[in-house]
Every structure is written in C-alpha cells, then in structure tokens.
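Tokens help. Our protein:
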Amino acid sequence: MSPKAQFALAMELTSRRGAMLGDVFMFVSGLYFRGKLTYALRFAAPPERDNPVVGCGVHIITPTAGLRSPDTFVTHRALRRFAEGDIHQDNAKYRRPLERSARVLQREIGPECDVVLLGSIASPKYVDVLLGIFGERLRFPIVFVGRGDMSRGGLLLRKAREAVELDYVPVRGAVLHGARPPKLPPLKSVARCF
C-alpha cells in the first residue's frame, strides 16, 4: 500500500475502483490462500446464469465484512479496515457481519448445497460461527486434519491441477486435531521456453 509501489495490484488497490479481493488475499497470503482460491474456483458449483442463487459459488471470509465473493473490489481503505479487524469468534465486529452474510448465503443456496470450509478447522474462529448456521452441511476436506496452512495450500494446488476433488466430512463431530501427515512430495519442475 506504499504510494511508491508501482506494480499492477498496488496501483489497482489505490485506484477508485480498487482491486479484486481474491487477488489481494492471494498476494498477502501467498501459497496458502492461492491454494484455497484455486481449488475453490475449480470445484465449487458456480451460480447458474439464469438464476444466480442456484449453485454455491466461492466466498471469502473477511475480518470485518463477512463473506464476500473473490471478485469483490476493495480499496486500500477496506484493506486497512481488514487489517484492524480481530478475527475471533467473540469479537462482534467480526462475528456479526459473518453471521449476517452466512445467513443470507444459507437462504440463497437452499437445503441441497453443502458448504465446504477450506479455512482452519482446528480453531473456533470460523467453525464456531459457521457451524451454528450451516450445521451438518458445513464440511471440510478430511485430509486437512493435522496439516498446517502451507501444507493445506500446497495440497489444494496439487488437487486443483490434477482435477481431483478431495473427500469432505461434516465438521460437527469430526476429529479436528490429529497427527501431522507426511510432507507433500516436491513438485516436478517444468521447463518453460519463451
């Protein structure tokens, strides 16, 4: 957000329109968020053109604005508000917008759509809020148990590249903490000619 920054995303962020939320979060979080967003965009059921509430789509949990689409435009002011937000289930400035937007999503998607959480399942900051709204429909990839952020991001990128969707289980009643699985094998380098 430096006024001296001249790369495309920085210039978009300071423009009147802003930059897309997904792009900003990928820049800030790197591998972890890039994996989540790439995987989600690959496997989420997109809304149908004639009926935008059919299909779940992809939503990002923000620190102060609840659930937002990755193509939501945010300015540097919105990003500053996010940075000041405390992501904790007991913080009303975080929890209330998340609850409001999750209830709207619940009404829009109807009873047939599951909600897959690709964020941290081992801490109550997301689970406590979303489980109360989505109940048994709130699911997560079972292979997340025991994995740290970077491992989850790397795994999600690999599965999106392979076009292999993970198995999901309900959050309610699941074991959310476990032994760390083995490290992911390194990716093979791909030679690129320009």
Q: What stands out?
A: Residues 9-170 form one domain.
